[in-house]
């Protein structure tokens, strides 16, 4: 079953990481001793900082096999936590190395620091550490809330510079994995595979797919005063491995600036002939889609996400949507099989995007559709445990797919836990770049 596939992917990922950590530690013990015990500890921390950097790259490499089973949001969350582990490993490595050389030379710590800065290999390592610390500070919630996404993302790409500096530092450093040719080959082989996966997933595959499919805007259809659907066509779309529930990162060069990118879900199941995204005017980029001319070139990265029917573990399903979060739910309903219930939460029926399509699809598939209206502030709480159990009495026997505003999604997930719906049957994904 697909859920087993997700568990297997998680187990496989961390098993690969763990096995390589163990192998590297064995190689380190066999030949990684420093000039004194303090420097040996510093080298040990440096090796593990490099391993954490490899894991960081792998988690955001957008490897299709992992992304399709685990989802970009989960991989990105792991990337964030590994990032803070990397920060402490880098800081401790740098601190212990300076202390180790100060102890070895019998010199003051500050003088030792400046002496090491005069050595090219050490200076490169210091520069890499400074970049990692800077990006980590800018990634804290306090700093992140004060920066636009574009600014934060541009600063975050400084980690590529840190990677280059760290690799140069390791290459020039001649005291670790150099005494044994097999150890050196293993270490640099890990780096080649990791960087290769990152470059392939983030650059080579998107460039190849866009050159091959040649995406273009074929129609722009207003759905309401604030919502618009964009139809995209191209060559050989039947060979694009997209599923209902997935999303792409969309760019419209020529209409918007190149760095303006948005993650929009497919609002219709891919049919091999065209793709459709439906977006609400929540910002300058999405608001401008309404004026986009037919024929505009499209650069699409994806498909991404594990919010698909591949995750189903039961014959019955509950699809829960809120606001414009209905777009992947509508696509899932289009290809859904079995007993399906749809809950669509909006303030008023006028806010219900794609409602006519949902009703047609529900009627054609024998699905139940409940439109849940009203303001939460006025007492409308359909996702409280008691209300949710009343709407869907056999809830624990269904897979549940949830997509909507963060507050609504959190409320639904809390109620599902209270109602003891097994975690393996609950599927929620945040479609976001950061």
TrEMBL record:
The keyword Transmembrane helix applies. GO terms for cellular component: membrane. Residues 210-310 form the FAD-binding FR-type domain. Its main location: membrane. Its cofactor is FAD. It is found in: Membrane. InterPro entries: FAD-bd_8 (IPR013112), FAD-bd_FR_type (IPR017927), Fe3_Rdtase_TM_dom (IPR013130), FNR_nucleotide-bd (IPR039261), MRET (IPR050415), OxRdtase_FAD/NAD-bd (IPR001433), Riboflavin_synthase-like_b-brl (IPR017938). It is a multi-pass membrane protein. It comes from the Bacteria. SUPFAM superfamilies: Ferredoxin reductase-like, C-terminal NADP-linked domain, Riboflavin synthase domain-like. The keyword Flavoprotein applies. Keywords: 2Fe-2S, FAD, Flavoprotein, Iron, Iron-sulfur, Membrane, Metal-binding, Oxidoreductase, Transmembrane, Transmembrane helix. The chain crosses the membrane at residues 12-33, 45-65, 77-101, 113-139, 151-172, 184-205. One of its GO terms (molecular function) is flavin adenine dinucleotide binding. This is Oxidoreductase.
